[in-house]
Each structure stands twice: as C-alpha cells, then as structure tokens.
Design brief:
The complex is a heterotrimer. By secondary structure, chain A is mainly alpha-helical. Chain A is built from 13 helices and 2 strands. A two-stranded antiparallel sheet of chain A has the order 1-2. In chain A, a hairpin with a 5-residue loop joins strand 1 and strand 2. Chain B folds into 2 domains: 233 residues, D-Maltodextrin-Binding Protein, domain 2, CATH 3.40.190.10; 218 residues, Dipeptide-binding Protein, Domain 3 (Dipeptide-binding Protein, domain 3). Chain B is built from 15 helices and 21 strands. In chain B, the strands form 6 sheets. Chain B has a 7-stranded mixed sheet with strand order 8-9-10-1-11-19-12, with helices on one face. A 4-stranded antiparallel sheet of chain B has the order 4-5-7-6. In chain B, strands 14-18-13-17 form a 4-stranded antiparallel sheet, covered by helices on one side. In chain B, strand 15, helix 12 and strand 16 form a beta-alpha-beta unit. Chain B starts with a helix and ends with a strand. The relative contact order of chain B is 0.15. Chain C folds into 2 domains: 72 residues, no CATH class; 221 residues, MetI-like (MetI-like fold, Orthogonal Bundle). In chain C, helix 1 packs across helix 4, helix 5 packs across helix 8 and helix 6 crosses helix 8. Chain C is globular and about 85 Å long. Classes of the chains: A mainly alpha, B alpha+beta, C mainly alpha. The interface between A and B is medium-sized, with 26 and 33 residues.
Chain lengths: 312, 524, 313
C-alpha cells in the first residue's frame, strides 16, 4: 500500500560488509537496551529451565484443602494421592490449591517456548514467501494479495477461530498465532529483496549465470538478517501476549497446563479478594514481554536504525 | 463552526446527565441468571435456566409446595376413581393466555402430548395411558390402561422438563422442531422484541393473571408478581456479577459461585437468600462408547471419586456442602447407605486393579469441562487428576455450558466428537425418587445422556411404579440405588447449598422453591 | 484523482475474495460435525441427515463456497446455529457498543498519543523522552485484561467513580453511555497510546532533522508552529499509516476488553460464538471485521492525497 514511500526509504541502506562483523557484535552488546532486555530475559529463561530446583512442586498437583492461600504462607501440601509436603507458598495458591510460584515458573517454559516457536515459524514461512514474491516478479502480485487478505483478518479472530476449530493443543496454538504474523515478515523480506535486487553486484551475478538459489543465499539473505532478527523479537513478544489472551478467553492451551494466561483466567473470578492469582503471572508476563521488546529496540538501534521504515 | 460543535456537545452532555431516569416509575427487578438462555423451547433442553424461564411465562396443572406436597395450580377440582385408573380434572376460573384467549382443555391436552413425547416420565405416563380427552372446554379426563403410581407427581414435577401449558397451536409444533411463539398463561410475559441473546432477557408483569388465593409456596399457591418488569442481565464473569450487585446495577444473583461466598458475606450491602434449597452434583458416564461401555472400567472410574476433595474444590467452605454417598438426598425418605462398592472416598488401588482386570488399553477418557461456568468449573480439573492417578488417560476439553449441553447429546465415540464423562448439578426434587431422577435409565439409546443398557434397572423402575405401599417403594428404591452403582450409571459427588445473593434492604419476598421462581419478590 | 480512487477500490476486490476464501476454508476444514452440534438432544440419524442437507454440507466444497459467496453478495451472512437468528441481525444488535468503544478509544488515543510523541521528539534524547518511551514500552507489554482489572479495582470499586461493567445505550442517555465507556476506552487506549506515541516520536524526530525545520526556525517561527505546522504535518503519513494498522490490533483488543467489562458488543459475541463453535456467526464476524480493516486502510491511502501533496497516483 505504501510501496512507493517504502522503496524510496529502503534504498538508503547499504548491505552489511563482513569485515565489520566483529565490531558490530561488540556494538550490539554494549547497547543499554540490549543489556537490560537481554539480561532480564536470560534470568527468566534460566529460572524456567531450572524450575524444578527452585523450590517448586508439581505445577498441576492440586490440594483443594489449601485453596486460596495468601502469598507467603507456610503449610503442608496434601496431594490427592496422600503425599504430604511442607511447602512455602511464596506466591500463594489458586482456588484448587495449586502453588502459583510453581505454576508461574513452569508457565515461563510454555510462554518462552511459544514465543520462540511462533517467531521461528512465522519467520521461516515469511522468509520463503517474501523471497519468492520479491524475486519472481510474476507471482509477486498474487502472493501479495494473498498476504493482504491474511493481514486484513484481525490476528486475534484468526487465532481464536483456528483454536476453536482445531482444538487447543500446543501445535494448533503456535500455528494459530504464527499465521497472522507471516504477512508482515513476508513484506519485510520482500522489501529487502526488491531493494537489493537492483544493486549492481546482483545484476552482475545474474549476468554470470549464477543459479537463483545462490543469489538468494549469498547476496539477498544477508541483508535481510538484521531486520528479521529485530522483527523476530517483536513477534516473540506479541506471541507471548496473544497466547495469554487466548488462554484468558478460554480458547488457548488446555486448562490443566500451567501457562500464565491459564493462571490468570482461572483467577479472574476472584480478583477482588485474591488478586495474587492475576497479579503475579501478570507481572511475569509484563516483564517478559517488556524485556523482549526492549531487547528488540536495542537490536534495532544497533543493527538497523532504518528498521521502522521498512515495515508498514 | 468549532464553537457550535462544542456548544452542541456540551448541551448533549447536560441533557444526558440530567435526564430523569425511567426506572423510578416502573419497578424493574434485575436478575443475573445462572447461565445464558439460548434455547427457548422447554422440551428441547433440561438446563435449569430454561426451567426458570418456563415457570415465569407458563403455568402448570399442579405445583409442589415447600413441603414437597402436590397442590393444584391451574386445576380447580380433580378426582380419581378408587383404583386410580380414571382421573378427571377441571380447570379453575380466570385462566387466560397472554394473547387474551382462555385456556381450554384442548390446549392442556396438546401441551401434555408434546411434553410426553420428550420427557422420560411423560413418556411413561403416556405409555400407561389409554386415553386423555376433553369433556368440555374446562374439564378433561385421563384413563389409564396400566397402574401408574405417580400421576399427580408427573403433572406437577418441577424436575427436568416440567409439563408447561401452551396454546394448542404452539403445542402442535412437532417435538423435533423448536417452538417460535412464546405465549403462555403464566405470571410473566416474555418480551420477544427486547430479547437479546447473550445480553438480556426481558419479562413484564402479566397484569391479567389471576393468582390463586393461597400464599405462594414452592411452585404452588398464588403467584403474585410484585414488580412491573424483570430483566435477566447475562453476566458470565463471577467477578463482574459481584461488582454489579455491589454497585446496585443488579438486584439478585441467582447462583453465586462458592468462591464469591466470603466476599459477599462480608459485604454489608448483600444478603443471602434461599431461592432454591439444597442440591447435589453427580458424575455421569457415557456407557455407550468405549472405554466406559465396559462396565468394570466404568466402575473403576466411579471408584476414583473423592467427594471431599471435589466438593471442597467447588464449594470451598465447609458450611456450604456435605458429602453423601447415596443417590437420594439426605433427609429424604429413600436416602440409604447401601451403596454397593461406592463410598465417596477414593479407592485408587482398587481402581487400578480393576482397570488391569478389565483390560483397559489406555483409551482416552474425554471429560467435558465448562470452563467459564463458575458453578461447575472446579470439578473437572480435580476429577481429571483423580482419574489420572488411577491410570486413566484423561482428555479434559474446555467449552462453554450450552456447548457442553449440545455435546453430551452426541452418541459418537469420544474421539469423534462424543464424550465419556461430565459433571452436572441437580436440585432436591430432581432425585428425591428414582422415577424423577432423569439420568438413571437403563433403556440404552432411548434413555438419558449416557445411554446405559441395563434391563434390571428398568424392571426395578417398572416395579416401583406398580407397587402400592410406601414400604415396598422404599425397598425398591434401595435396590435401584445399588443397581445404579453396579451398572456404573453415575456417582453422586456431594450436596451443596445454592447461594442466591440479593441486595440487602432492597429485595424481599423470596419464595423458596425447588426451581428458581421470581413471583413474590418485592423491590423498593 | 478519480481514476486513483477507482483503481484503489478495484484493488480491494481480490483482497476481499481472499478473505472470504480463507474464512470459508477455515470452518469447512475443521474436525467435528457442525450438524451434530445443532441437533442436540435428539441426535437420531434422520435428524442429522436432514440438518446436513439443510446446511448444504453434503455438496462438494466449491459448490458450498459458491453458494455461500452468492449468499454473501446478496447481503446475507447466514443463520446462527444456536440462536436461530440471522447473523446480520445478531451483529446489528451488538454493533453499537463495539463501534462506540472503538471510536472513543481512537479519539482518546490520538488526542493523547500524538502530543506525547511530539513532545518526546522535541526533547529527543532527554529524560522526558526516555521516560515517555519507557512508559510506552510498558504500555504495550501489559495485557489489556490486567490493565482492565486494575482500573476496575481502583476506579470503580475503591473510588466508586464509575460503573463496573456493562454498557449504556445512547438511547438511554448520554451520561450513562459515557460513564460506562470511560474505563474500557482508557484500558484499550493505554496500549494504543504506547504504540502511536512511539511512531509519532520516531516520525517527528526524523522530520526535525530536515533542512526546512532549520529554515523555519531561522525565519523566526515560534517553536509550536515549527512543531505542528512543519514537523508534524510532514510526519503525518507514517502516523496515519500506523493508526490504520492499529485498527486491526484495536479489534483484537476490543474482544478482550468487552470480556472484562461485560460489554455486549461484537467482541463478546465472538468469544461466545467461538466457545459454542457457532460457525456461521464466527464467519460473519470475521468477515465484517476484515472488511472494516480493508475499508479503514483504503481511507488511510486516500488520506495520503490530502496529507502529502507530493504523492500523485
């Protein structure tokens, strides 16, 4: 829709040159946003990874007798098959007696997995679509109309319909969140391809009869890497949020699974009396999404300051 | 131009804020019903909200008072022959439908016929009936060909599908099509034009209704409506409901989920009322499709029930629930502790052994989960955990309540859109005797959801209907109970007190009845 | 210019076709039998067969699509499975709250975000800029329902200022209408203010580096004039673009907000429809929203002609 303006601004970017790679990495790491966002993210990821050793119990184990304990309570956890475990309920319990701290940490695993999986899926598919559309002029029109159509359907509606129709398994949720993101990635890749295609060295390569795939791989792809990484972080953040929203509405991952959205959905009916059900996972969620967004900002500032002009 | 716009906006604002509120002239009772009313044909569904709707706009021949006694409602005089095989009924004076036409025997008979096609007790009544005929516009006679001990109970039953009386033309709608006219003869009139599914249901007082002279009690007595208008405000979120009643935006919450109990108890603006007395919950199994079509596997599932854990999870506070291993409510005549292998306490070891013996091959058990139906949504996760511990492969599927109701009607295998287990609630009149208790059927696919095939169960029920003495009925009731467990039809999960919240000092006159009735309620 | 309009409108047609195709295929390829869902209580074989032929589920897919498409072009969106009413009627009943909420959110967002972004760009690199951008990052990281619940807790329950839930129809008075909408609109706005403020800041900051700004300052124009007449005006195109794209996100946000505030709009209708697998309703709403998005973006494109005289199509 704004192809004219997009192209003109994209033309201004130079392709990355290999000999600058080392100082680039250092530049990236010394950026404040990258440090902050990346740091928090690493802590969260580590916590998710080492969850079983961080004072948690089985996140799906319930003890109706210990329902709705306030954060900080000490007590015995009586599991359904008779085990008694003394436990410090740092973040309290939900109405079925499940420990919120345990659920939140294990939920981090799900959220981070969903975020990364969605970002990867959307980018791999978007890359293919964008490369073909940008390079092969004849199918460009059709493909972009298709992408416009997909983009016109509000992402939540798309995700919600897909989950309703195909059931709420992890795979369906990931696909349902990824598909609406593909057009944006495709547009991004396509704009990069369109700009680079006109460069003299590409023309030279074509004249030398270099096979298409080599051209795509050697010359075009490296220019797309930076914007894709940045886009990837934003997609990841958005995916984590959308998953939470889907669970909150009741059309996300299975309810017994410990995900942040599910914890909040379960606790919403008692928000007035026991806000800890919603607030703790909410803080985790906000923190994760925020750190990913901040990381993305930092990457954008160092790797590709003209990023905002590429995307619509 | 800018100034004109600003002035206009200002004016509109002032007008909006100072506009007198209509509500001061008409008394509107705002109720939050337990769930959304989606289906408007009484014989099409057994959900409680339908029953409440039905009792508002329709009238019944007989009612049941607070002591459980059958009392005439639309009927004035009635009599039966000594052997109870011939019955004669006369309608009382003043009965009119909402369109002004009088209620005649022809309307009554056609309504009963339509009801008798779908309701299980109605089916039995009509199977035992030789004929039902109108003698004139106000009297009709029923002749039986077999003894049927529950004639009045059937005509008054508030359980499952009550026999509501509709105009003949409406009742002539085939029972496999939904009615499209909602004219009744009850104390409220349904305003179809203001009905917005998912948002609100509107009734107005039927000013031409002639109530009986007796005080209201249960579904019997004089149905005097003390407000001008009743609006059902559909709010599915429990938090939103609580907030709304605290703020005075609604007056009554029909069924408060237990997790709001403490908040409302400590709320100075809210009181609890007894709209409906106790009820019970039960786990229902699908005995038609695998794996529960194998009775041993089904029994193993019932053995995993831990009434204490399940009730605690759903009702939270000790004063709101009690356990009860009998299928009949505590305090009723047939309640008994002869419950076969079922104890209400989890027997996980026995269940595991039984599963092995029955040759369970890890087939999935689809447990239906009404995720946003606050009065039932804590059971399935606990039930799933209990079943898993016994070795079942549980697939708990989320859906909303109306979808669950539609899904439980499917007879396909559970992997193809069917189901294996679900949990629902019942009110006291529903399971006070084995013939009222809709789910205990043994006639396979013609029976209630779950479609158990057990001839012995059906024979016992027939015997129950045929005998004369209460002592015999009691003995049979106990045997039926044991048979229900042996055939693994269902397992009771415990009993609960249904909380109804009202705005203190604004709402009064609640009539306790086995279903939710809204006449008699006053608002200031 | 007229030919531009025509060309733009014609370009929409294939997009709408693609949307219709996607929506149709989504529901037809799902597992489970929609006919069984309707029949409910009496799922006998003859009933199922009758319903299936009523819905045309026995015909081949292209035929079904053709029939459905033809219905669409005639303005009929089909009939809801559960509620037995035409989808268009159900949508019509619920459109007012959603429309009101969306418009109010947009107005609030633009009125707050654009000035914020301009100020942040003006003080580019300063503490105000950093703080605003930090807050905005927070704004679109916290999910709408958390913001909603916190606002309800503080404003409606603690301070008792506004109603907790529901929607006041305009026909019942402007006062209730406004008071019911303020909290939900604020909840949604927080997210969009964050997004729009960022883009505004970036675009205005970019414009501020241009030569004409230096000229304007040299000419002696007041800073306000420089910011509004020159910087903002030139940054208008990307800002308006993002507002257009934001509409799609806004629709998604509306679904959640209506759920939290119990507003009987299209968003909660969607959730209901999805939870009850009511396919015609899901289809109808998705089509409607997509069409709205396409229309909004068309208007955005047309607005470029007004905002940027350099663009000639």
């Amino acid at each position: 829709m704004t192809d004219v303006r997009l192209l003109s601004s994209v033309m201004a970017v130079e392709p990355l040159v290999p000999r600058r790679r080392r100082s680039l990495l250092r530049r990236v790491i010394s950026n404040w946003s990258v440090r902050l966002g990346g740091g928090v993210l690493c802590v969260l990821a580590a916590a998710a990874l080492f969850a079983p050793w961080l004072g948690t119990i089985d996140p799906t184990a319930m003890d109706p007798g210990s329902g709705n304990l306030l954060p900080g309570a000490w007590g015995d956890f009586n599991s359904l098959d008779g085990d008694v475990i003394p436990h410090w309920f740092i973040m309290g319990t939900d109405s079925l007696g499940r420990d919120i701290w345990s659920r939140a940490l294990f939920g981090a695993r799900v959220s981070i997995t969903v975020g990364i999986a969605v970002a990867l899926l959307a980018h791999v598919l978007g890359l293919c679509v964008g490369l073909t559309a940008g390079y092969f002029h004849r199918i460009d029109g059709i493909v972009m109309r298709l992408m416009d159509g997909v983009m016109a359907i509000p992402a939540i509606l798309f995700a919600v319909s897909l989950v309703a129709l195909f059931g709420g398994t992890l795979l369906v949720v990931i696909v349902a969140i990824a598909v609406p993101e593909i057009p944006r990635v495709a547009r991004l890749v396509r704009s990069v391809v369109l700009s680079v295609r006109e460069e003299p060295y590409v023309e030279a390569a074509i004249a030398l009869d270099t096979p298409t795939w080599k051209i795509l791989l050697r010359h075009i792809l490296p220019n797309a890497v930076a914007p894709l990484i940045i886009q990837g972080t934003y997609v990841c953040a958005s995916a984590i949020l959308v998953e939470a929203i889907l669970s909150f509405l009741g059309v996300g991952l299975p309810a017994e699974m410990a995900t942040w959205g599910n914890i909040m959905a379960e606790g919403r009916s008692q928000f007035n009396q026991f806000p800890h059900n919603v607030l703790f996972p909410g803080v985790f969620l906000a923190l994760t999404v925020l750190s990913v967004n901040v990381l993305g900002d930092g990457l954008r500032d160092t790797l590709d300051p003209k990023f905002n002009k590429r995307t619509e | 131009m800018r100034y004109v716009l600003t002035a206009f906006l200002f004016g509109a604002l002032i007008m909006g804020v100072t506009r007198p509120s209509l509500a001061q002239e008409t008394k509107v009772l705002r109720v939050v019903p337990q769930s959304d009313l989606k289906i408007l044909d009484p014989i099409w569904t057994t959900v409680f909200v339908m029953r409440n709707h039905g009792y508002a706009i329709y009238d019944t021949l007989f009612g049941v008072d607070a002591e459980g006694q059958v009392r005439p409602q639309m009927v004035g005089e009635y009599s039966s022959s000594a052997d109870h095989m011939k019955w004669s009924f006369a309608l009382r004076e003043g009965l009119h439908f909402h369109d002004g036409k009088p209620v005649t025997s022809a309307d009554v008979i056609q309504s009963l016929k339509r009801w008798g096609e779908r309701d299980s007790l109605g089916q039995r009544l009509f199977a035992a009936m030789a004929s039902i005929q109108a003698k004139d516009d106000a009297t009709f006679e029923m002749t039986l060909k077999q003894p049927f001990g529950l004639v009045l109970e059937a005509l008054s039953k508030p359980a499952s599908v009550p026999p509501f009386i509709m105009p003949k033309s409406v009742a002539e709608t085939p029972s496999d099509k939904q009615i499209d006219s909602y004219i009744g003869s009850g104390p409220f009139i349904f305003k179809v034009d203001e009905y917005r599914p998912g948002e609100r249901v509107v009734y107005v007082k039927n000013t031409k209704y002639v109530p009986r002279n007796e005080p209201a009690s249960g579904t019997a007595g004089g149905k005097v409506v003390k407000v001008d208008r009743m609006e059902w405000v559909i709010l599915t979120d429990a938090q939103t409901q609580t907030n709304a009643i605290t703020n005075g935006e609604v007056d009554l919450i029909e069924w408060v989920p237990a997790d709001q109990y403490l908040a409302l108890k400590n709320n100075p603006k809210i009181d609890f009322a007894n709209l409906v007395p106790k009820g019970s919950f039960a786990l229902h199994l699908n005995r038609l499709v695998p794996p529960f079509n194998n009775v041993k596997i089904a029994q193993a599932a019932l053995m995993t029930v831990s009434q204490e854990a399940l009730m605690r999870a759903q009702m939270v506070h000790k004063d709101l629930y009690n356990t009860n291993a009998s299928i009949y409510p505590t305090g009723t005549p047939y309640n008994s502790d002869k419950t076969s292998f079922f104890t209400g306490k989890p027997q996980l070891e026995k269940a595991r052994a039984l599963l092995k013996e029955a040759g369970y091959q890890n087939e999935p058990v689809v447990l239906l989960y009404p995720a946003n139906f606050a009065v039932l949504n804590k059971f399935p996760p606990v039930m799933a955990a209990l079943l898993k511990q016994a070795g079942f492969n549980v697939d708990m599927q989320s859906m909303d309540w109306p979808t669950l109701v539609a899904r439980r009607a499917m007879k396909n295998p559970s992997t193809q859109g069917g189901w294996n287990a679900f949990i629902t609630g019942w009110n006291i009149p529903d399971n006070v005797n084995p013939l009222f208790y809709a789910p205990i059927t043994g006639n396979g696919e013609k029976g209630w959801f779950g479609w158990t095939t057990d001839e012995r169960l059906e024979t016992l029920k027939d015997e129950f209907l045929a005998v004369d003495s209460e002592a015999q009925r009691k003995a049979l009731a106990v045997r039926i109970q044991e048979r229900v467990y042996d055939a693994a039809v269902l397992a009771p999960l415990g009993e609960y007190k249904q909380l109804t919240a009202i705005r203190k000092e604004a709402i009064g006159g609640i009539v306790t009845s086995p279903v939710g009735v809204f006449w008699g309620i006053t608002k200031n | 210019m007229f030919s531009f309009l025509v060309r733009r409108i014609v370009a929409i047609v294939p997009v709408l076709f693609v949307i219709a195709l996607i929506v149709f295929m989504m529901t037809r390829f799902a597992p489970g039998d929609p006919a069984a869902a309707i029949v409910g209580n009496d799922a006998s074989a003859e009933n199922l067969a009758r319903v299936r032929s009523n819905l045309g589920l026995n015909d081949s897919l292209p035929v079904q699509f053709g029939r459905w498409g033809w219905q669409l072009l005639q303005g009929s969106l089909g009939e809801s499975f559960f509620l037995k009413k035409p989808v268009s009627e159900l949508i019509g009943q619920r459109i007012e709250p959603t429309f009101a909420l969306t418009v109010m959110t947009l107005v609030m967002t633009v009125l707050i975000a654009v000035p914020l972004g301009v100020i942040a760009a003006w003080r580019h690199g300063g503490w105000l800029d950093r703080m605003l951008m930090g807050l905005s990052a927070l704004g679109f990281s916290v999910p709408a329902f958390v913001i909603g619940y916190v606002l309800i807790w503080i404003v409606a329950l603690r301070w008792q200022l506004l109603p907790v839930q529901g929607y006041g129809r305009i026909s019942d008075g402007i006062g209730p209408w406004l008071s019911h909408l303020i909290l939900p609109a604020t909840t949604l706005s927080i997210i969009y203010v964050a997004l729009i403020a960022r883009v505004t800041r970036a675009a205005v900051a970019e414009a501020m580096t241009e030569d004409y700004i230096r000229t304007a300052r040299a000419k002696g124009l007041s800073e306000t004039r420089v910011l509004t007449r020159h910087a903002l005006a030139n940054a208008a195109v990307p800002i308006v673009t993002v507002i257009g794209i934001g509409v799609a996100l806004l629709i998604g946000g509306v679904v959640v907000t209506e759920s939290v505030f119990a507003i009987p709009g299209l968003g909660s209708l969607t959730v209901d429809a999805v939870l009850s697998r009511d396919f015609p309703l899901i289809q109808g709403i998705t089509l409607l929203f997509s069409a709205v998005y396409v229309a909004v973006n068309l208007m955005v494109d047309i607005s470029y002609l007004v905002l940027d005289p350099r663009i000639r199509y």
